[in-house]
Amino acid sequence: MNLLGKIFTGVILIASCMFLMLAVAVFAAHKNWKEVVTNPENGLTSQLAAAKQVNIDLRAEMVRLKQALQIERAARVGALAALESKLVQVQQQLDQKEIDLATRTSALSVANDTMQTMENTLVGLTNEVVVLRSEIRSAQQERDQIFKNVVSLTDDLNQATNLNSTLAERGSQLTAQITRQKSVMDKIGVNEFTPVAHIPPKLDGVIQGVGEKNFVQISLGFDDGLRVDHQLEVFSSTSGNYLGRLRVVKTAPDASVAEVLKKFQRGIPIKKGDSVRTKIK
């Protein structure tokens, strides 16, 4: 046997094995189709009858559902009509609301403008109130100052009135005094033009110290009306006797220096503490 014969023999052997396996598979997969069809439990006939019954039931359910659908459609048509009517009413109400909204919007705009105007007016009035308060405070201060001035002027007026009364009374007194003085001046032969600078005023003082060369210091000065060359009389502070006469040679505001005039001395020395008086001619 050559090589070709061996190949064919192997192919035949493989094909035989394949056909054997196919036959075994077909035998294993073989069914009794009559039993499958006529089996009362789960056969195709019983399954077909059950399917027909299900079909009948489904058709009945479909008829019932169609009737229900028609009823629901009629109800929906009625509901839709009612809804459309209600929609018309709602649309009318919406239109009315829109009109009301437009009206209220316009009124609100007018109110806003009015409020803005009122706010501006309020700001202006507030500023005016601030200015008026400041003016009121100034006016009150001026009124208080005027009241104080009136009180002060009233006091001044009362004082001036009292002073006027006092001055009038004093004028009457001075008039009477001048009359008496004029009478005295006429009797002693002097008038208002008679020089009186050399006449000292009526004064009383003391000797404050005794110096050399007949000079003494006295307690009367320029502020008392004492002037240079005025003469004063000296009296003892113990006995009151007349001791002599002094002539002022130098004055200070509250003291003076005087010279003892020898021709008027009475022999008793002048000492500190003795009294001095002006001499009236």
Q: Please state the structural category.
A: alpha+beta
CATH class of the domain at 204-278: Mainly Beta
CATH fold-level name of the domain at 204-278? Elongation Factor Tu (Ef-tu), domain 3
Largest sheet: 6 strands, antiparallel, barrel
- The side-by-side strand order for the widest beta sheet comes to 1-2-5-4-3-6
Per DSSP, the total helix count is 3
**Rg (C-alpha, Å):** 78 Å
Task: Output the helix-strand order.
Answer: HHHEEEEEE
Description:
This protein has 281 residues and is of the alpha+beta class. It has helices at 3-29, 33-38, 44-188; strands at 204-210, 215-218, 231-235, 242-251, 256-261, 275-278. The chain has a domain at 204-278: Elongation Factor Tu (Ef-tu), domain 3 (Beta Barrel), CATH 2.40.30. A hairpin with a 4-residue loop joins strand 1 (204-210) and strand 2.
Short description:
This protein is an alpha+beta fold and 281 residues long.
